Sequence to fold (127 residues):
Amino acid sequence: MSTGVAITLGAVNVEADVPRTLAAFWAELLGGAVEGDSDEFVFLPAREPGGFAMFFQRRTGPRPDRQTQHLDLTVPWGTREAEVRRAVGLGATPRWEVLDEVPWVQWSTLTDPEGNLFCIAEHPPTS
Fold:
């Protein structure tokens, strides 16, 4: 039995009404270029080693009433508001902000162009 952990996050899979369009939004937001583009599937590779890829596939059923998972994206302290404005300029919709619930993080929750939740978070510098 191995004593080390070898599991890493390889990709986040997203069902989309229009995979190409949603992948283009995420490529602009996260940086990188869409690859493996077809009518039903689109791939956005990890931007850097240790990062995560995103795989978009055409939605096969109705959108669930409640999203049970979402991405938490981290930005350097003091840049969250600018990154939220950039995301909105790319097509995201602001939903709410949590600025004083806990002292170790502030975040803004948004939705991508198809309504999928994600957060942009910043953590204060440690002293």
In short: The chain has two helices and seven strands. The mean pLDDT is 91.
